[in-house]
User: Fold this.
Amino acid sequence: MKVLLTSVFGPYGVDDEYGQASCRMELFHNQVTREQGVFSMRFFHESFGLHFLAENISVPTTVLDFPSEARFVEELRRGYDLVGISFIVANFAKAKRMAELVRRHAPHARIVLGGHGVQIPEVAEEIPHDHLCVGEGVRWLRGILGEDPKAPIRHPIRPATFGGRILGVPVKDGSGHVMPGLGCPNGCRFCSTSHFFGRQYIPYLETGKQIFDLCVAIERALNVRRFFVMDENFLQHPERAEELLALMEKHGKTYRFNLFSSAENITKVGVDFLVRLGVVSLWLGVESKFEVYDKNRGVNFKTLVNDLRDHGISVLTSAILFLDQHDHRTIWEDIRFIVGLEPDLIQFMQLGPVPYTPLYRGMKATGRLLENVPYRHWHGQERIWFQHPHFKADETDRILTEAFRYEYDTLGPALMRMCDTYLRGYRTLASTRDPFLAGRREALKRRAGKFRPFLAAARDHAHNETARELVGRLTDEYNDVFGRMTLRQQAQSQVVRGFAAREARRVAAGRNVYQPRTIVTHYGR
Ligand code: SF4
Assistant:
């Protein structure tokens, strides 16, 4: 028995019969910093779920990530008994094409379809397959392979990102991937993750000790001390985070974490706890001032974001546009509200009714879905695919772009805001006598030092007066707080300017999409 697990084929982020230029593989460049030109932050994430599956079955398995169509066919010819294809809704056409290729080039292989795309109603009829994996995949896959679904879970050791570039400078992939669990019980009506896993939290790492031991193992293997925590709402289980912190303090480990968390859980544990824990960035779902979910009730976001940034924690707030409460006036009220929070980063996403969510079911039942819109448009970064009481679908693309540009014009480049956050956090912790917090302060200083050589290039490419003022202020304050740049930093600064100039030419020429390299990983051989 041989298993092949694959993501969909590229190229990505181009207009062709399978995809769109507005659906890119780079997370931030797709939906966070996409209108920030040369300042857009570029990196890729592996299809971590495929590695998780491969690590937890005992048969020889190949993970093929980001193949071309030809590379996928080449791999099929190596003789597999089971081929798993993972896809999101927007990649329906790619998954269909790949399943057809499996039937042609590996006719004896069973096909498993997995990922958020599998609940599209047409999948059953239109995509050749033998199995559909809905929900948690590890135990399910073990089941169809005749293995013990309840065997202990093994967590793969993988880097969190690759192919990073900041202002055109290739940056080292410096963090590991940690996935404590899947799903979220909150069940916000639009949330595909929560509903895909049946509004349950499915833990893989149930204790702080398990997470700590994993971090130690990743540190040893990859030489990293920063971790991207792939868990929709990590702080929902504060006792786990508390145990993790206690072990870090006991063993003198100043690990750092990028987290997703709802506001209610941040306010429960408090900002001081997050600083001790080593949280360096938080993805926070603000959503809208007009549709307030339980997780956000009573939260003063302005104060919260300010407090987090004052403690050196970068904040990404996410917002939803084209709610029913939005008309041409109120949508801008919401955009100004989100921008007015002054976070480091903002994700604007169009309301997107994807199959199996209550939002989708409600729109389907009331005939509001634009059923003739191909699935490759269903990704939230182009135009809506439902009837809105106040907007035509073909104006939503422009308004989304204007929201991103308004943010960029008003707050300046996200990269500079993050440099500001490092400095603010360093100042807040400047006088601490607590040795563990002093470690946190020194980490912020190192981070600030790492990005300081980017300031000169940022000044070269600042696109308006606000951005120029921000860069100028930061340059002065960095000089005040950290003293003159070292000779090494001065040299780096010139190198960054060279890379940034080249990147700016690339962006200006319209070549503003990078493709991930194909990654082939073998398990159990
Ligand atoms: S709190 Fe976040 S992860 Fe949980 S259901 Fe709501 S949007 Fe989804």
Observations:
- DSSP finds 20 helices and 17 strands in the chain.
- The mean pLDDT is 96.
